[in-house]
Amino acid sequence: SHLDHFFLNFFFPLQFVALAVCCVPTCTMIYSLCQIIYPVRVFAGMNAAVRATVRVGLYTGAKVFFVHEGYQGLVDGGDNIRPATWESVSMMLQLGGTVIGSARCQEFRTKEGRAKAACNLVKLGITNLCVIGGDGSLTGANQFRNEWSELLAELVHAGKITSDEAKKSSHLNIVGMVGSIDNDFCGTDMTIGTDSALHRIMEVVDAITTTAQSHQRTFILEVMGRHCGYLALVTALACGADWVFIPEMPPEEKWEDHLCRRLAETRRSSRLNVIIVAEGAMDKNGKPITSNQIKHLVSERLGYDTRATVLGHVQRGGTPSAFDRILGSRMGVEAVMALLEATPDTPACVVSLSGNTAVRLPLMECVSFENNWNTYKLLAHMHPPDVKSNVSVAILNVGAPCAGMNAAVRSAVRIGITQGHHMLAVHDGFEGLAQGLPITWTEVGGWTGKGGSMLGTKRTLPAKVMEEISLNIAKFNIHGLIIIGGFEAFVGGLELLAGRQKYEELCIPIVMIPATVSNNVPGSDFSIGADTALNTITSTCDRIKQSAAGTKRRVFIIETMGGYCGYLATVAGLASGADAAYIFEEHFNIHDLKVNVEHLVEKMKTTVKRGLILRNEKCNPNYTTDFIFSLYSEEGKGVFDCRKNVLGHMQQGGTPTPFDRNFGTKMGAKAVLWLTDKLKECYRHGRIFANTPGSACVLGMRKRTLMFQPLDELRDQTDFEHRIPKTEWWLKLRPIMKILAKYKINLDTSEHAHMEHVIQKRSPVLMPV
């Protein structure tokens, strides 16, 4: 069902439809889009949501309006409600905060104020609002909707609107997009702004760590979170903090003694201590615990050189991360679709992200936090069991290095030790299985924030050295294997599985954790390392576009990594506002290139005189980056000039993003717990023997859950020649990228989110995920 069919079903029976997202829409015979953003507190990623809502609204034929200054602008009306154009949301993606402003509005809290807002909407024919904000903003919107009929009746009685106008605006539809750096909204795994806030925090933590190590200091970092400790907890997981205080889990009585004892234990093997405090932290009696209080405690009792840092509003600012840009863009598109499908009986809903799936939830069911407290407690402090398991688990990295690998290794090692296992570090991939070395709790300290692979990694596959590997598995008495890597790790796992027919030593549980910038491992929608690479590309594109802002009439052609997989080019294109992204999975020809050039020629006639083209490195053997650069340069003569940039291996380097640190941490922990259970299942007659397909699995994220899938079952889902899965979820994002770049295409709406209910909040599978 394409959008033209969608129009017939939803538009023409209506006289008008209007949508608001701190932008306000109106229209007659076609729907109008209005956007209302009312967070008093702003956050990164809002502009991506605004941009997507406006452009998709315009794409569908709507007249779109901005409502400036949030609900205050809605109440005041006049110049605060202005038409939005395609160009007016250009160059917004990389900006923090909100370009259309936000303000507190006491008047909207009163019925008189809401009546003024209703009058302004009715006069413009607006019957749909899209609200971006937190609990307060969305609760206010829901109250506004519930009172709508009553407000119209009062306005008619007062003579401010006519009965005809009231009849045409008889109901108000509302869709919310959740924005909050605290990630405190029930029913969604991530709110817009949370990942960017984590980026700001981790930048500070990484900087503080270097000075703390040099001076042997203790640092106390206070982050936002008056009622919700998500930022504090995820920061603690991402940096391996010694202690974390959050409102949801007050410390036990005499926590001061416990804290000092833990810090002293850590200092024996480390030159620094890091303590993370949420601003709303308190003890069992409800007494606040502050960073200064902890500082004085540590200084006086332990005599450590201690510093306290309160981050404050730096967490709300800065450039939005790639994750927040994509989240905001996807939610903006889904919000428009939800409003088009709304009826008078449809409850006000929130569009949000659950795992990797867009969902719609009744607004008032969403207005609460669940954390990963147990994971942090397992990883932060060593609690070895009294009885060892006599199980040896080996961990190795295979393929190209990527950010986040070390976080997965650290998590797996520490969880394994808490399970009583003997953990072995395998250096240099499958070749290193000849020399498994024990690895301890303290050896992996500080690994979470390090890029690359501390264990070392190679692309060598096990088939050529299978006999040596089997001998050494027996020699080192290895009972389970964790393979962290990319497509080579996947193929290597299949080869080990096939080797079981000849070598009995290979009949042990095996789990593979996808870790590659290419995000091309079958069985998982996301790979560790891809988010870091994506942010590297996005930030580079931001700088390139900024350089063109002064020059004007310039088109940049950027080559990304990924092998045959176009994930990086596509998602970076969406996050950076690219005009086109050439990938292997979507074949293109000279006609397509001609269309793209003509599109840019037309674009140069507008106020947006710049272009950005991304090309996946193996999208086509003939249409190379040099060829496309030459073609664009020739065809654009006199209209625009071109520049090219091959990003290369800078995409594999750098410190991991909060997403990759925490995704790696969760994957490592989950892999070891699965291995532990599988070892119990496979224990027969005094030995481990695992030869079922389910004993060798890929741990991956599929839509909304982390799941284990047998390697053998994934074989049929794999294009081995091109090293990619046969089905790739992110291809559904490509039409969105093209629509936002103003291409006239059909959007497939056969798959869209349906209204769900919040029965029980699941633990987030993605942490900034």
UniProtKB/TrEMBL annotation:
MF-aspect GO terms: 6-phosphofructokinase activity; AMP binding; ATP binding; fructose-6-phosphate binding; identical protein binding; metal ion binding; monosaccharide binding
Swiss-Prot/TrEMBL catalytic activity: beta-D-fructose 6-phosphate + ATP = beta-D-fructose 1,6-bisphosphate + ADP + H(+)
Domain Phosphofructokinase: 44-338, 393-674
Gene3D superfamilies: 3.40.50.450, Phosphofructokinase domain
Superkingdom as given in the UniProt entry: Eukaryota
SUPFAM superfamilies: Phosphofructokinase (SSF53784)
InterPro entries: 6-Pfructokinase_euk, ATP_PFK, PFK_vert-type, Phosphofructokinase_CS, Phosphofructokinase_dom, PKF_sf
CDD domains noted in UniProt: Eukaryotic_PFK
Biological processes, Gene Ontology terms: canonical glycolysis; fructose 1,6-bisphosphate metabolic process; fructose 6-phosphate metabolic process
Keywords: Acetylation, Allosteric enzyme, ATP-binding, Cytoplasm, Glycolysis, Glycoprotein, Hydroxylation, Kinase, Magnesium, Membrane, Metal-binding, Nucleotide-binding, Phosphoprotein, Transferase, Transmembrane, Transmembrane helix
Any Pfam family: PFK
Pathway(s) annotated for this protein in UniProt: Carbohydrate degradation; glycolysis; D-glyceraldehyde 3-phosphate and glycerone phosphate from D-glucose: step 3/4
The protein's name: 6-phosphofructokinase
Lineage, top ranks: Eukaryota, Metazoa, Chordata, Craniata, Vertebrata
